[in-house]
């Protein structure tokens, strides 16, 4: 609030601050909650704002005792359907709309038992295709292996907590003359996403594996995957060593073809809450009974080696056109009925995105999820294309729609 010093050291409200105070009193709020512009006018805080940039007399603040629990003074709006984390993984596949070309190539990959390499611009639905396959075919939860520059083949196959096993062995009570046996090794082994996909795939019931952003990997990882993809098996070295050091008498008593070393190993993620979370590994080798449905995504950050590409089917997913964007929007927003035309404001957003992409002088790519963000705001009666107030700060050169639909780049399309 703007004040000026008066007689006797008191402060007096200026006309500007008095006007703001009267407006605030009328609205039932403090004067700080009313926006006062340079011209002396006021604009009411938009009703959809959750954060207003105003300190509310200490309510909900952390000025009190450090141990005092937070006191939220807000009710959050309903999240967009694709940002509702109380939903299960399956909803990601329900809303995906595959083109005829995508359906044809996916089926070819399933028939040939080959990995499917998906390329295309960010936000075109490459990852969502894996969830759509798992949901339609009833194959359970999708296994996801997100790739970074530090990812190695073993990260996807399995992990072994040798230090944890050693610590557990040292902490166990000791007594008598018999040497203390270490804890069972299976308790400290866990299959990774790729290892689980191979181990848990059974005839007519393969797992779906998504290897996300393979182009971000170390240069050796694609070639390291070749043997696993070709053979459908891998070795857990720690178990293989135990099998080779098995008791000699047990080996002599066993039949030549009889396995001698069996260990229960935990899966990365089970197919569902009812299925087993462990799998038996025999003699340290994991071999698939059915090759999993493997999808790899790439944003084209670097070229992949030829021997790797030869073993994959490749599909480039194009940005959706206007008709497909309408289908995608209807799939995510259940209130938009199929037998009714989309609201004019939604159609305007869709055409704006398509026109920016097809503009010959300056091609700008806006991802599908950015469009859905804008649609969610519009359907909740949030204005994107005009100022919230006629007296809005003139320094604000970008409207809300410019932030929500900001192009990823111009060289991508």
What do you see in this structure?
The protein is an alpha/beta fold. The chain folds into three domains: about 1-65 and about 70-75, no CATH class; about 80-165 and about 185-250 and about 260-315, Rossmann fold; about 320-405, no CATH class. The chain has helices spanning about 15-25, 90-95, 100-110, 125-135, 155, 160-170, 195-200, 220-230, 235-245, 250-255, 305-310, 320-330, 345-360, 370-380, 400-405; strands spanning about 5, 10-15, 35, 40-45, 115-120, 145, 160, 190, 210, 235, 260-265, 280, 285, 295-300, 315. The strands form six sheets. The protein has a five-stranded parallel β-sheet, sandwiched between helices. Strands 1-2 form a two-stranded antiparallel sheet. Strand 3 (about 35) and strand 4 form a beta hairpin. Helix 13 runs antiparallel to helix 14. The model is unreliable at about 1-40 and about 245-260 (pLDDT under 50).
Spans with pLDDT under 50 lasting ≥5 residues? 1-40, 247-258
Helix content: 25-40%
The CATH class of the largest domain, by name, is Alpha Beta
Order of helices and strands: EEHEEHHEHEHEHEHEHEHHEEEEHEHHHH
How much is the average pLDDT?
A: 80
- What's the β-strand tally? 15
Q: Order of strands across the widest beta sheet?
A: 6-9-14-5-15
The main β sheet shows up as:
5 strands, parallel
Strand-helix topology:
Layout: E1 3-5, E2 11-13, H1 15-27, E3 35-36, E4 42-43, H2 91-94, H3 100-112, E5 116-120, H4 126-137, E6 143-146, H5 153-157, E7 158-160, H6 162-171, E8 189-191, H7 193-199, E9 208-212, H8 221-231, E10 233-235, H9 237-244, H10 248-253, E11 262-266, E12 278-282, E13 285-287, E14 293-298, H11 306-310, E15 313-317, H12 322-332, H13 344-358, H14 368-379, H15 400-404
Parallel strand pairs: 5-14, 5-15, 6-9, 9-14
Antiparallel strand pairs: 1-2, 3-4, 7-8, 10-13, 11-12
Helix pairs in contact: 13-14
